[in-house]
């Protein structure tokens, strides 16, 4: 009897869960159908699973990023010869006016926020609507890193750069992946492609930067435009079948972008309207 | 077959409808006077002069040549030879333009270019030694006036080819420009050198951003106005972020801006950026450059009817008058000698009800010529002038100096003298009259009057009734 009872209540819970998920599904579907339904080239329909719209209660005024979603890298970043010192100070990272703002200052302080330990996902659509900073040596990025970075290290963990921009070329974005070379797992074997706006710049208005990622492909999008597809055939080793977490940062200087000059206008702010992550709806 | 025929018919019908609509539009437009349009030609100098372009040298004609050896791209570049100090012409300068008059005075081509679809004049440049070119720009129009002049100042060049951008502040205003490129450059620390320009053309880049226009140097300023007085809006500027992420400051004429007045009954502003005071009251003048609002404003506090300077009381027979409507003036008085390169002072002189007023704006210093040749004031013992300062008088410091050239009758030569006074107290909202005693200093060969702002707040002043007695 006791057993039965437990089973029964379990059933009730299950059916409640089912009801909940049906309701949720209905909500999501209707949401999708007006705005978020993306019938990609692969005919995929996406279901929103995680997002930050950066719209806290306006009565609070400017606030720090939601700590249930974001954590920080703090201090100097000892790679790529970058110059910035990352902080979580409000002058470097703040949520206000419905935007996440990451600001690089003339004293080379900046910010790098990430979802490591809070959210990661294998496959799906990762997108951000954002406006980039500009100026020589300014290096904004919206990117993903494999959860295994702490165990296997880089580049074996894999890296997906959804947006990287050199501030001296504000109309060109880079979509890249980094993974190990087959000869040496310590050696980076990247694949990368640029996309340039004609008669416009990524710092002049908001644009949507996205990837759609499946078992055997990563598609790179700017707004509605698919500009790159990377498949296992393009790389020496495909390490993109594990959960990845999200990073947003504004670096100053470094091997990729070159160094800031006396002509670099400061401060420089990356404004993020939202980050959304979807799963494929089966 | 039938289906195909049907679809043809449909297409034809549709086409016909489109044409009818288009035609009826055309007819509507042609009812109004349609202005003549100019060609939107982009090239200025790629491998030679573009069609219809002329060159006029300022100074030595040979400072410009077409160079077939040193090129950035293609077959030819423009070579500019800047003379050393003391060499012929002592500076290099010139203007490239379409249209204008032939040397015999007959207009050969009243042409212009429609630049409204472009957003920059771009070129590649290098030089024989590191230098800063004083000024490069466009919009010097021989026939139409230089209403839409734009330039870059102190352009750094060196021995590497580099691309330069002159953003067009608001291209929609440029539907018939003659002046396509001009330059001014003097010796570099006394030395002559050569610079080259290639691939000079108008472009539609679409990759300028973050325009930051200014009027009144970005400040909110206040000035006093009187009915019918014209007040030029000054301190205009703009910067644009270039396609390489760097901010470029440009010099531009006020005509690029669209001005507006908070109270048009008090003051209005014309297309050239000159405000006219209409009645007593307060009006705030603001501006925009294309879609971008300019930082800075001018509040005009109009006192209504003009306050005239006190009428001079000296007997005409005892007076040598330079500038007064109450006396007969000597001939040849000149109120602004435009001493380059450090003078910023501009003249905005005006006349109200028959009374001429000198108005210096953006005042740092200015020289006057007293008369044709030199003035002998040895028979007089006092120098008189009236000053009105529109706006704030706090901190204003004015130095007034009479320069005597001495017995050699020429500036310099070790025998020049000066009679000067410094005024640091003015009353706001009134004319201030000054009578400067001339003492025993020689004044039989007066060459200049120098008015000078001693690093003070005094940037705008009226002067009237300048005479000796």
TrEMBL record, chain A:
Keyword Hydrolase: yes
Keyword Hydrolase: yes
InterPro entries assigned to the protein according to its UniProt record, in alphabetical order: Beta-glucanase-like (IPR000757), ConA-like_dom_sf (IPR013320), Glycosyl_Hydrlase_16 (IPR050546)
UniProt-recorded Gene Ontology molecular function terms: hydrolase activity
Keywords on record: Hydrolase, Signal
PROSITE patterns, sorted: GH16_2
Pfam families xref list: Glyco_hydro_16
Signal peptide: 1-35
Residue span, GH16 domain: 48-282
Family: Belongs to the glycosyl hydrolase 16 family.
Protein name (record): Glycoside hydrolase family 16 protein
Automatic annotation (TrEMBL), chain B:
InterPro entries hit by this protein: Galactose-bd-like_sf, Invasin/intimin_cell_adhesion
Top-level taxon of origin: Bacteria
Family matches, as Gene3D superfamilies: 2.60.40.1080, Galactose-binding lectin
Entry annotated with the keyword Metal-binding: no
UniProt entry keywords in alphabetical sequence: Signal
Signal peptide coordinates: 1-24
Record flagged with keyword Membrane: no
Stated name of the protein: Glycosyl hydrolase family 16
Organism: Flaviramulus aquimarinus
